[in-house]
Amino acid sequence: MRWLSTGKRFGFALFAAVLVAYLIGNPSIPSNRSYADTITEGSIPVLNVKDYGAVGNGVNDDTSAIQQAINDALTIKGTVFLPSGDYKVTSQLTVAGSGFITILGAGGSTMQSNINATLTTGNVFEVTSAYLVKFKDIAINNYGSTGRIISFTSGESHSIENVRMTNTAGNSSDMVYYIGAFTQILNSGFVNNEPSAYAVHVKSLTSQLNINTNIFDNGFGGTGKGILVDAATGTRPEGLKISRNNFILTGAEQITLKTILHVDISSNMLDQSSGSSIKLDPEGLALNGVFIDDNYISTAQNQQGGTAILAPLKNEGVTNTVISNNMIAYSGYGIVLNANASNVNISNNVINDIYHTGIRSDKSRSTTIKGNMFNAAAASLSIADGTTGGPFIIKDNQLTGTNTITKTTISKFYMGDNPGL
After folding, report:
1. Which residues form the Right handed beta helix domain (predicted)?
2. Residues whose CB falls within 8 Å of the CB of residue 12, separated by 6 or more in sequence, listed in order
């Protein structure tokens, strides 16, 4: 192997000299940190919180040590590493500046690094950084009476990956809140123990773009609610994907949409809700472009009164909605639409064990109900056009039970072959 050329050796020596000068001029960064004692070209420096005085025994207050490690990591775009242990936190940890840092635990398949917070004000982590703050391989528990676990109130391209979060009954704060764009929440777990709280709150503000975010492969459990999507007046999020998540909640709502432009809800297990598994509840700008595909949906905790997919009657609209290829079972109602719903396609769903009605539409507009299979439902269809609803295309459905089609205007209905009707 050839040695470096004279020019390259000179460049390397110059780089080393600059590095030494930098470290001398930044005495707040411990010189004995356990990882990345020297910063080499192409590497990410790792700052160990124990080098800042954190103990991780569940007794000592590690708040200030963790905060100092975060502050230093922000100056060098580094990683804050929490080795195995239980870290006591008693006040808010703030991630500010430009960002580009990772909060990393000794996780993996099992969580070994735990932050245990007891807050009376603020949030466990308040992220105001502009870009790329990541939480990974760590458990964060908030046992306090208030505060979010992670609050992204600025920036974009932040992420949560393989993080387990737990809140406590009586804390009505969202567990995770974000307003930025290109946010990723992946492979994480939410144990929501407060019935009024949401595990994830997605919000759009007039001053902050919220677009193209993903919530994939997470687990939601506990007595609380799942995901809320809403916005400040005059705006809405765009391009949200909620996929391959497992909701085992006894809370009243698992996914609630107030306003959005294009959302994909696909390949999720939504089980054991006590109210509405998916609530299309418009507020502000309409819900536009809702795709609900390939999910298992059940309100088995309230098999008489629960509704798998509910669009309550509101002044704002629910438009351009596709509900297809889902298994809907063990619910009071399967799908309920009202007069504010338009351009709806309900196709190729299997709807089983419904206490009341599989699909109920009261004056929805431009609605297609095609190729659905019903089994063990007291009624498969209850459809009424009223004076403002329709037109309806109803064909190729396999029906069971007592069905009601109320036609104020016969010309608004195209009825194909529907065995059982």
Report:
1. 263-402
2. 4
The one-character DSSP state at 270 is E
Q: Choose among 32, 162, 55: nearest CA to 106.
A: 162
Q: What is the secondary structure of 161-215 as a DSSP string?
A: EEEEEE--TT--S-SEEE-SSS-EEES-EEEE--TT-EEEEEEEBTTB--EEEEE
Domains defined for the chain, CATH in brackets: 174-415 (2.160.20.10)
Token pair, residue 351, equals 């709807």
pLDDT mean for each 10 residues of the chain (421 residues): 40 40 42 38 84 98 98 97 97 97 88 95 97 97 96 96 97 96 97 97 91 97 97 95 95 96 98 96 95 97 94 95 98 97 98 96 97 94 96 97 95 95 86
What CA–CA distance (Å, rounded) separates 172 from 195? 8
In this predicted structure, what is the pLDDT of residue 187? Answer: 97
Q: pTM for the complete prediction?
A: 0.89
Q: What is the four-CA torsion angle of 150, 155, 157, 163, rounded to 10 degrees?
A: -10
- Ramachandran angles phi, psi of 24, nearest 5°: -65, -35
Measured CA to CA, the distance from residue 197 to residue 210 in angstroms comes to 22
Contact 240, 184 (CB under 8 A): no
